[in-house]
Amino acid sequence: MPTLVLGPILRYVDNTRATIWVETDRECTVEVRTSTGQSGAENTWSVHEHHFAIVQLVDLPSGTVVDYSVTLRSSADPVVEASPTVAAGGTLRTAAEDDALTVAFGSCRRGDTYDEDRLKAIGADGLAGLAARVKDQDAEQWPQLLLLLGDQVYADDPSPEIKERLRERRETQKDPELGEEVLEEICDFEEYTWLYRESWGAEQVTGLMATIPSCMILDDHDLRDDWNSSLDWRKDIEQKPWWHRRVVGAFSSYWIYQHLGNLSPDELQNDELYLAVRGAATAEDREKLLSDFSLRADSEPTSARWSYVRDLGNTRIIMIDSRCSRDLTPERRAMLDEAEWKWLREQALGTDARHIVFGTSLPYLMLPALHHLEQWNEAVAQGAWGKRWGKVGEKLRLALDLEHWAAFGKSFEDMVGLVEEIVDRPNPPASALWLSGDVHCSYVAEAELTRTSTDSTVLYQLTMSPFRNPLDLPIRVVNRLAIRKPMVRFLRFLAHRAGLEDHPITWQAEAGPWFDNGVMSLRLEGDTASVRVDHAQTGPGGSQKLVQTHQMQLTT
């Protein structure tokens, strides 16, 4: 009889609709029934012997706490109840028109165990701490959304347990394309499924994933560290015999495990690839569809869109793909190619929301000294100090991970221009916020435009990283130096020497940096905005909890 392999994972929730994602061990019909009388059902579809379904619920009562259960039906087997009982259980809360909105967010979470040695080595898990908090709260206190801002899995640096499985599989398969370089790295769809099951199947977080709806976006470790950092990087990696296999595994699994749940029910019903996959006659046909899609998405970024929008009350959340849709051509480097940038402008300018939230895995506003370092590096790599320094600059770009928005100067300036348009309109929003992760430290930075008044709109960069993957001590020291005025002045001087002018935006860290595992929460109510920072700690018996580190009002 069928059983759940992973899930249920609550993905989309609005006032009256929800989507619930599951993976099962065999073909079956997945039915979700609610305590308020609504139900939905979907037949599973399979890829590489894994079976998936996304069940849609409609006509739910708004502003209501709804219990749900999952039933798996097979024509040959009796009904099997699969209830999400761990942690918070199978409960969702629909939105109400006048709801305040709390968004919990962060990034960079290693799938790993919670035994004493691993808790000591990499610390308590921010998501496990959040799960423990949610379990003890009334539904009215829950966050309405969980944003996972990249590096949900680490294909290039998995846990010790998965590394052991990889070594055993390599020994058994004896594949000449998978040599020593990727002996302990994820290389195909099956191996990616191990990562997701390890990360989201742990009992410490299953209840959270079943209760709080989630939005996700990809970052480099979904494929490999520094993915799409430069054209040189791409030219080198594309020569690897294992690369295309990894691309297919990464994008196919990301599309199934993460991207589909980002879409609303309407978007799912109109998604051509989703319709084709569900309608395919055989698993082999589905695998071919996803393989072709994945390779094309990697080589022709405009053929796929990973970015998306979620509107919640008076807030528009724009989740930006700041990794796959880059233009890496040295003379026109861009964080987003022309098609993606046009889409972003349309989403940001086509709303009268009181709060505009940009979700970008990479911080838009880095700690000041690091920003100037990346500015300088891009200019030097493009020849500001001559050919010899240009080669040095390109090597430094890769060696030091200099690939954030600051290292794509045109895109950085374009974003300033977009925000100027947003705040300069007759009814500007109360806030424009960038939510990010990636950098394995957390901070709150306030920004001001220098060419346009921001009296009516507050601008903040809110960065939370990691959920669970702390920085080594030497890199922590570098990040602390990055807010010191002498270091900022020196690197700003270097940027000027490379021919760069100051940006028409200024910012400084108001709080942080912090380096421990944790979660940040943004609360939006009417025109007010506030942020809370919590860090994860271990307790008796290996328990994990969140402890508040900082709280501040963003709007006056």
UniProtKB/TrEMBL annotation:
Record PANTHER family:
METALLOPHOSPHATASE BINDING DOMAIN PROTEIN (PTHR37031), PHOD-LIKE PHOSPHATASE METALLOPHOSPHATASE DOMAIN-CONTAINING PROTEIN (PTHR37031:SF2)
Q: Which parts of the sequence belong to the PhoD-like phosphatase metallophosphatase domain?
A: 139-463
Q: Which residues form the signal peptide?
A: none
Coiled coil region boundaries? none
Where does the record place the DUF7800 domain?
Answer: 1-73
Pfam families named among the record's database cross-references: DUF7800, PhoD
Q: Which domain of life is it from?
A: Bacteria
The protein's name is Phosphodiesterase/alkaline phosphatase D-like protein
Organism listed in the record: Williamsia marianensis
Mark out the compositionally biased spans (Polar residues): 545-556
Task: List the residue ranges of the region (Disordered).
Answer: 535-556
